[in-house]
C-alpha cells in the first residue's frame, strides 16, 4: 500500500544523500541531488493518491519546475568551474580554507 | 522659626559658583585666546567679597539676638537618610562660626586681591583663581556646617584644594611630590576623623547627627568612648593642622605660590583642626585626659617647630615652621579647656601670619623669586612699605605688647598656668622666647645690614599697590585686633570670650591676680631675651655660619623626613612592588590567564572541524540529521 | 496481482539505477543509470494513477533535464584523467550508510505508523490533465505564477553565468 511507495521513496532519498556525501565529482553530486528531488516527488504523488486530492500532483509539478531551473543554473556553474581549473574535483576548489 | 534664614547657604555658594565660572572660562579659552587678567581678577574677587558682606550681615543679626539662643540655621536639602542617620546639608551660624566666618572671608578677599598682582603674567591665571575660589567655598562649608558630616565635606574639599594649589607649578616634579605628600598625610588624619565620627554616631548619634543635637546628648557618652572619640578626632586635627607626627607636609607645602601659603597654610585651612576641637568642646570638656593629650602634643609640636625655625634658610620655611609652632600654641589652649583663648589666637594669628607671608611674597617678587635669606639683606630702604608692615607682623608674632599676638598668646599661657599645667606653661614661655628670636632673625637678615646679593638688591623695589594695600590692611588688623579681647587686668571686657561663650564650654579658672601678672611678666621677659639675642647675632649684618653638631642636626630638621621615608615610605613601596611583581601575576591574574589559555586551547581543538570544503560541511549536516532522528525516535517510544 | 509485479519490478529498477549512479566512476555511466531510475519512477507514477505526472516526468525529467546533463558531460569532454581520484569512495559510502541508518529506520517507523489505507478505487478523472489544471489554476495560481518568474530568473541567470565575457574585460 502507501507504505511501500513511501519506503521506496525513503530508500532513494538515502541513496541520494550517500551520493552527495561520498563522491567528489561535481556532476555526480548534482545528479544525486536530482535523485533526492525525485524521491520527494514520489512521496508527494503517493500521498496524493491515497488522500484522493490533487494537491500532491500540483506540488510535484512545482518541484519539477524548480529542479529544471536549478539544473540549468548548476550546470552553468559547473561549466564555469571547469573553465577555471579544468578539473571536476570539489576538493580543488578550496578558497574557503583559511 | 526666627532661627531659620535662607541666606546662609549663599555664603559658600558665591565662591563655589565663581570657581565653576572661572574654571570653565579658563578651560575653554586658555589654549586659543586667553582672556584678560583683569576680567579673571574681577570675577575672582567678587565671590569672596560678597561672602564677606554676608558674613557681616550674619554677625550683626546674631548680635541683635538674645545671648542664650544666638544661632541661625539653614537646612538646604536632605543629602541622604539611612536608618538612624539623617544627613541634611545644613548650615549653622552661631557665635563661634560667625567669628571664623568674618576673618576667613576678610583675609580670603584680601589675599585674592593680592594675588591679582602676585600672579600677574602667569599662563594659568584663571586656573589659579578657580582653585582659590573653590578653596574658599570649601572652607566656608567647613566653618558653617551644621554637623560633623557637612564639616567633613568641607574638610575634604580644602584638602583637595591644598593639593591642587601646592602643585600649581606642576612643570616641576618636586612641587607635585610636595602636593602628594600634603594630600597623603592629610588623608591619614582624615581616617582618624572618620573613625571618630563613626564612633560618635554609634554612641550618641541616634538623636540626630548635627551639633545642636549632639550637644544635648553629650552627657550620654561614657568616658571610655568619649576618650576614643576625642583622640580619633584629634588625629584628624593633627593631619589638617600639622601637629606631631603629621606635620611633615607643611614645610614642603611652601612649594606652592606664596598667596596659597598665606591663605591656606597660615590663616585658614590649618586652623580647621583647632576649630574642630573647639566645635566639639562639649565632648572634650567631659574628658580631661584627652584635653591633656591634646595640650601636650600641641606644646611639644610648638617646641620642635620653633627649634627648626631658628635654623632655616628659606624665608617661607621659617614662616612655615612658625605656623606649625603657633598652631601648637592653639592646641595647647584648647587642650586645657580654654577654647575661646585658642580661637582668639587663631583669629589674631590669621592676621599677622597672613601679613608675614604676603610680605615675604612681596620680597620674593621684588628679588625675582629668590627665597634664601642668606642672599638678602638691607632691603629696608628699598622696600619701606613692606618693611614696616612685616615689622608689625613680626612684633605681633613675637608677642610684643601691645600688638595682637601678645594678648592672644598671653591668654593661652595664662590659662595653662591657671589650670595647673605648669609644665606646659614653662615650655610655652621658652617657645615664646624662641619665637621672638627666629622672627627677628628673619627681619634682621632680610631687611637690615649690608646687602648680600648686589644685583638683586639694585632691582628691588616696593610691590605695586594691588599688593601693598592688603598688606597695610592686615597690618592694621595685626596691630589692633588684640584690643578686642583685653583681659580685665587692662580694663577690657574679654569681649571675644564673652561673644564665644554660648558656643563653647569654657573652663575659666578663678585664680588671683598674681598668677596673671606672673604669666604676663614671663612672656614679656621671654620676648625681650629672644629679640636681644637675635639683635646681637644678626642685627649688624651676619654671614652664613657653618652648622655642626647639634646645630646641624637642627638644621636638617632632626632628619625626621628621612626617618619617615625609610621607616614608612620605603617598606610600603616595597610591599606594593612585591604585590605588583609577584602577587598580582600569580594570584589575581592567574584566573584570567587560565581562562584565556583555555579558550585558546579550545579554539585550537575546534579548528580541526573548520576545513574549507563545503562538502564536509554538508557531511556535518547529515550527521546532525542522523543524531536528530535518533533523538526523535527515542521520543517516539 | 499484475500491479504488484509491476510495482516490484519498477522499484528494483529504480533502486539499481540509484546505486549505479552513486557507484560508477564516470559521470556518463552515472547519468545513464539515473535515466533508468527516472523512467522506472515514471512507471511508478503511472501505477499511482498520476497520468499527467507520468507524462511530464518522462518528457521533462528523463527527457529535458537528463539530456541537458548528458549534453554538458559531453560538452566538457570529460576524460579519464580529469576525473578525481576517488579511492576511498566506498569507505565514505559505507560510513554514510551507517550514519544514515538511524534516519532510515526512524522514517520507516513513522511511515509504518500511518493508518493503513486500502487502495480505494479512484474515478476516471483522477490524475488527468483536467483535474490537475483545475486545481492548479484555482487553488495554486499564485505559486504557479511565481514559479514562472523563477524560471525566467533561472534563464537569465544561466545566460549571465555561462555567457561570453564582455568586450574589453
List the helices and strands and how they pair.
The complex is a heterotrimer of chains A (98), B (637) and C (169).
Chain A: H1 2-22, H2 26-51, H3 55-85
Helix pairs in contact in A: 1-2, 2-3
Chain B: H1 10-29, H2 37-63, E1 72-82, E2 85-93, H3 95-118, H4 125-144, H5 148-166, H6 173-204, H7 211-217, H8 223-241, H9 249-252, H10 258-267, H11 272-279, H12 281-284, H13 288-309, H14 315-335, H15 339-366, H16 384-398, H17 404-418, H18 422-447, H19 454-459, H20 465-480, H21 495-500, H22 513-538, H23 550-555, H24 560-606, H25 614-636
Antiparallel strand pairs in B: 1-2
Helix pairs in contact in B: 1-2, 1-4, 2-3, 2-4, 3-4, 3-10, 3-15, 3-20, 4-5, 5-6, 5-10, 6-8, 8-11, 8-13, 10-15, 11-15, 13-14, 13-18, 14-15, 14-17, 14-18, 15-16, 15-17, 15-20, 16-18, 16-20, 17-18, 17-22, 18-22
Chain C: H1 2-23, H2 27-47, H3 51-76, H4 89-112, H5 129-138, H6 141-162
Describe the structure.
Chain A is 80% helix and 0% strand. Chain A is elongated. Chain A is built from three helices and no strands. Chain B is mainly alpha-helical and 637 residues long. Chain B is built from 25 helices and two strands. In chain B, strands 1-2 form a two-stranded antiparallel sheet. In chain B, strand 1 and strand 2 form a beta hairpin. The termini of chain B are far apart. With 169 residues, chain C is an all-alpha fold. Chain C has six helices and no strands. Chain C has helices spanning 2-23, 27-47, 51-76, 89-112, 129-138, 141-162. Chain C is globular and about 55 Å long. The mean pLDDT of chain C is 87. Chains in contact: A-B, A-C, B-C. Chains A and B meet through helix 1 of A and helix 25 of B.
Short structural summary:
The complex is a heterotrimer of chains A (98), B (637) and C (169). Chain B has helices at 10-29, 37-63, 95-118, 125-144, 148-166, 173-204, 211-217, 223-241, 249-252, 258-267, 272-279, 281-284, 288-309, 315-335, 339-366, 384-398, 404-418, 422-447, 454-459, 465-480, 495-500, 513-538, 550-555, 560-606, 614-636, and strands spanning 72-82, 85-93.
